[in-house]
Amino acid sequence: MIIRILDSLSNRQQWIEFCRRERSYCFITYPDTLIDLQTSHLQISLLNRQVRHGQQAVKYSIGSRHSIAPAWHFIKACGFNLEQMIDLLQSQNFDGNARDNSRENARLGLRPDISIRKFFAKERAVISPAFLGPLDPLTQPPAFWDLHSICRLLANQQYCNLRCDSPVRKTTADPRACTQALLLALIETPEQWQIQLRSERIYIFKDRNHLYSLEARVETPSPRLSAP
Q: Of residues 129 and 148, which shows the higher confidence score?
């Protein structure tokens, strides 16, 4: 799954546009977070430009079981500013992983029925985009294939004939799941992987052991005709 990246969520209009998306689930660059607005909860994962593995991320869940209104009221009470929300959350005392305190909510200008919880994220695939650089589609084959170029191929499905070439790893699993697993592995432990180009096929090694291969499908744009 390709997750959209937004620059910020710092005003009402940005939040309205965010909520109008088919799924309100995006990375935010400033501050470095993953935001998920669900049926009745706002979830904020703090990436802090250092999370390489999703289970390292501190996550807050704000809302109510019955309605989106308390979560939206929280957003409004913080002036629609994501940084202000995070400052407020990090200033709170949590008993275990929960803070359900109607008196404190009233003092902060929040609804009494709002529940705020703090825990570690469970999504292994949540990685700060600060580690990746933009995974934009390739517009032409690079002069030298490196891991970042391969990640861009995988993220944008610019390849064909992906094979798992290791005898112990051969599988009939869903090709899309295989692609996501490989992309995640390249991002999490880049120091373990190597790339070789042989003829038209790219071979991917882990610790010098050949595991995968694929063919790039990058079409070089046609040259523009100059005006007569």
A: 148
